[in-house]
Design goal:
The complex is a heterodimer of chains A (about 190) and B (about 150). By secondary structure, chain A is of the alpha+beta class. Chain A has five helices and nine strands, in the order H-H-E-E-H-H-E-E-E-E-E-H-E-E. In chain A, strand 1 and strand 2 form a beta hairpin. The longest helix of chain A has about 40 residues. The radius of gyration of chain A is 24 Å and the shape is elongated. With about 150 residues, chain B is mostly helical. Chain B has seven helices and three strands. In chain B, strands 2-3 form a two-stranded antiparallel ribbon. The chains are: A alpha+beta (about 190), B mainly alpha (about 150). Chains A and B meet through helix 1, strand 8 and strand 9 of A and helix 1, strand 1, helix 2, helix 3 and helix 6 of B.
Chain lengths: ~190, ~150
């Protein structure tokens, strides 16, 4: 009788335990699967437009992006002036710009350009030469892009990538090309 | 004493179940941290860059028989037929030569592939894309480029 009682209790407990685990894992997995999608604000679709708008408030010599055209000389000048974080230009506001209604506090961003030869050097040949602008918690974007690594480390919940085709204008027909502007946003 | 032994084991199992449940409930598993691509504006961007890029940005001698496009050889036949400044962007010139039928479909496919695929602007292994156009003659959109067919 006692053995039956113990066996019954043990088996009931085991079944209940397994059901609870299945239930909790199911709830947890479902939330994990959907929550990331819900957490991506729709405004992020407009970060590239936000960058172009914010750059308009920079000095004339640094307004590198206008209507799908990137002025290489002005891009180099912009890179010299902004060697650290550029989150204000990507996500936030700069000077009197209106932004897209998202605070840059929850994001770290990287900006770089690629063509068929790989990442495009900015300030090429100079001591300040880089291939990417911006920084994340794990260091400069440049060091990650050069090493073909994801700049968004485990400190972030999501990595968001955007790109658009732009004309890289070197003011030289032999070098001008339509290239890929890339932006990586690391969401905290 | 044996009754107490059974009830104590029962209590211990119940506490264990509760503890494991609470741990699972509050445990925050690390996410895979995969990159999510946002491409909802890409089609607009393709059209935009074609409109913003002048043929004279990519070629010398536009509108002459000696037109030379160092980085885009497939553009040279079309470059020779540029007449006015209004035509001096890829989108406008493409539309004009399409409507007059002065450039073959294969030449356009080669141009699109050279600009966007071969130069690494759009990775066809990740993104398939098509470019369609409509004319005043045909009600149905015609395919100018389709990555699945041409890859």
């Amino acid at each position: 009788m006692r053995a039956q009682l113990l066996s019954f209790d043990f088996s009931t407990g085991t079944i209940f335990f397994l059901l609870m685990i299945a239930l909790i894992i199911g709830i947890f997995a479902f939330n994990t699967f959907t929550s990331n999608r819900d957490e991506i604000p729709f405004e992020l679709e407009f970060v590239l437009s936000n960058l172009e708008n914010n750059v308009r408030f920079a000095p004339v010599s640094e307004r590198f992006l206008t209507n799908y055209r990137v002025d290489k000389d002005k891009l180099d000048a912009f890179a010299l002036s902004h060697s650290g974080s550029i989150d204000d230009f990507l996500i936030g506001t700069f000077e009197d710009s209106h932004g897209i209604g998202i605070s840059p506090d929850n994001y770290d961003g990287c900006l770089y350009f690629r063509d068929d030869n790989g990442p495009i050097a900015i300030n090429q040949g100079q001591p300040e030469e880089v291939v990417a602008l911006g920084e994340t918690k794990s260091g400069s974007c440049d060091s990650h892009i050069i090493g073909n690594q994801n700049p968004c480390s485990d400190d972030y919940s999501t990595a968001l990538a955007l790109f658009e085709p732009v004309l890289m204008d070197y003011h030289d027909v032999s070098e001008n090309k339509i290239v890929q502007l890339n932006m990586v946003l690391c969401q905290i | 004493m044996k009754k107490g032994y059974v009830f104590t084991i029962d209590l211990a199992i119940a506490v264990l179940i509760l503890f494991v449940g609470l741990v699972l409930f509050f445990y925050n598993a690390p996410s895979a941290n995969d990159s999510t691509y946002i491409t909802s504006q890409l089609s607009q961007d393709v059209v935009g860059v074609l409109a913003a890029t002048k043929i004279s940005d990519l070629c010398t001698g536009a509108g002459t028989s000696s037109c030379n496009c160092p980085n885009y050889p497939t553009l040279e036949p079309m470059c020779q037929t540029v007449v006015t400044e209004d035509e001096d962007n890829l989108l406008a010139h493409t539309a004009k030569t399409l409507s007059f039928g002065s450039t073959s479909a294969d030449e356009y496919k080669a141009l699109i592939k050279e600009i966007f695929v071969e130069k690494g602007v759009i990775d066809e292994t990740r993104f398939g894309f098509s470019i369609l156009y409509k004319t005043s003659v045909s009600a149905q959109p015609q395919s100018l480029y389709h990555s699945e067919v041409d890859s």
